[in-house]
Amino acid sequence: MARVVITSPTVPSTAGVAVTPTTFIADGIAIPNGAKRAVRITNGSASSVNITEKFGPAAAVDGVAPADRVIPLAASATKWFGPWPGAYAQDDGAVYIDVSLPTSVTYEVVEITPK
């Protein structure tokens, strides 16, 4: 499988928007980087999982790349992630997010558009 590329983030509105969570796959997700995008990740399992935000090639200093950012997500917990600075952008312009045990972890990507 390939990383899931998010092409249509949910855009909230004052009328309300229905959002259906999507289950992670082993290859993670790619979110086109934008200052108004965020992802809500929910761990539906009974164990903690790790969420990994991968630094892009531009994050390297003097040829040394930083370690990817790993954030624990407790059992049955939900966290919001983003927006991301340019250091997280991959060569394709997306932010890559992985999860250690994807089978019970869901996500929803939103894009806030000012009115």
Quickly list its features.
single chain; 115 residues; mainly beta; 5-stranded mixed β-sheet; 4-stranded antiparallel β-sheet
Structural class computed from helices and strand pairing? mainly beta
Strand content: 35-45%
Distance between the termini: 38 Å
Share of helical residues: under 10%
- Rounded Rg: 14 Å
The total beta strand count reads 9
Mean of all residue-level pLDDT scores: 93
Which word captures the global form? globular
What is the topology, as strand order, of the major beta sheet? Answer: 1-3-8-5-6
Biggest β-sheet: count, sense, barrel? 5 strands, mixed
Number of helix segments? 0
Return residue spans where pLDDT drops below 50 for at least 5 consecutive residues: none
| SSE arrangement, N to C | EEEEEEEEE
Structure, described:
- The protein has 115 residues and is mainly beta.
- The protein contains no helices and 9 strands.
- It has a 5-stranded mixed beta sheet with strand order 1-3-8-5-6, with no helix packed on it.
- The protein is globular and about 50 Å long.
- The relative contact order is 0.36.
Short description:
Helices cover 0% and strands 37% of the residues. With 115 residues, it is an all-beta fold.
